[in-house]
Amino acid sequence: MLFLAPAHSPLSALEQLTAGWWTYYLAQCIIVVTNKRILFFPVKRDGTWKESARSVMWGDVAEIKRKGWLIRYVTFAFKNGSKVTYTHFKGVDAKKLAAIFSAARLAGAADQSASQGLAQLCPDCRNVLTAGVYSCGSCGLVFKNEKSMVMRSIFLPAGGYFYTGHPLIAVLPAIAEVILIFDIVLLLVTGLNKPEARSALMSALTIFMLVWIFETAITILHCRRYIRDYIPEKRDPNRAQVFAAGK
Question: Is the pLDDT of residue 211 over 90?
Answer without folding.
Answer: no
